[in-house]
Amino acid sequence: MLNSLQDFVFYAPRLRINKRILALCMGNHELYMRRRKPDTIEVQQMKAQAREEKHHKQMERAQLENEKKKREIAEKEKERIEREKNELMEKLKQIEEQTQRAQKELEEQTRRALELEQERRRAKEEAERLERDRQAAEEAKAALAQQAADQMKTQEQLAAELAEFTAKIALLEEAKRKKEDEATEWQHKALSAQEDLEKTREELKTAMTSPPAPEHDEQDETADAGSAELPSDGVTNHRSEEERITEAQKNERVKKQLQALSSELAEARDDTKKTQNDMLHAENVRAGRDKYKTLRQIRQGNTKQRIDEV
């Protein structure tokens, strides 16, 4: 209280009221003095303990809050990792499916390339055989022409046989040309299949090197790439045996083809436009005479003539 202030004086008509007012003032003064008096050691210790407990509780609350945030962050990180794991597993599954499709396509293209190579070789061998037949026919034609020059043979029969050989040579040349065209076509197809095969190999290699990829994929790719090579050595080793086995069949097939072609030409020929050579050729066919019999007869005639001269 300030000392400069004057006393507050008032009067009450009753004594009991004065005593109550005095007690109220005294209590107020005591509380005022108590608030300004320093705390005792026990009170200070109690306040310090209360502050420590409060601080400890705040620290525990902050630690719990921090742990809660860390737990939430960990859960979010776990969910993110799980989501990325699922995405990677899906990508790996897609890569495996692409690898399987590429492997199947690679095997199919390898098989097609092998078939095309075999067809090309067969066409080439057929063309070579037709070339040999053509050369044989040319030699027979030359031999017949030489025999005709040496022997006293009728001009009509010689012309008919020469025309027959010329027609056969033309047919053989046409067949050879078709076989050569067929061989060229098969070769182009084989080259196209080889290009597709190389392209598929590159796609397979690209798919196999995409992350993430398991360790055994590289080994599978190496084994698959090795198995994709054309087994041309095995085909080459069996070629001579196949030629020996099928040589007679090929000759018989060509003979039948020539007979069928002759039949078609005979049906398409106009009988009203037959020449003397055509009639002579038909007569030789009905009589069973051909170039080989003619050559044998010429040789027999030469031999008999030499015997008679001796």
TrEMBL record:
One MF annotation (Gene Ontology) recorded for this entry: actin binding
Basic and acidic residues bias (residue ranges): 49-82, 117-141, 177-188, 196-205, 236-255, 266-293
Coiled-coil residue windows: none
UniProt cross-references to InterPro entries, sorted A to Z: ERM (IPR011174), ERM_C_dom (IPR011259), ERM_helical (IPR046810), Ez/rad/moesin-like (IPR000798), Moesin_tail_sf (IPR008954)
Domain Ezrin/radixin/moesin C-terminal: 238-309
Compositional bias ranges of the Low complexity kind: 142-151
Protein name (Swiss-Prot/TrEMBL): Radixin
Organism, scientific name: Oryzias melastigma (Marine medaka)
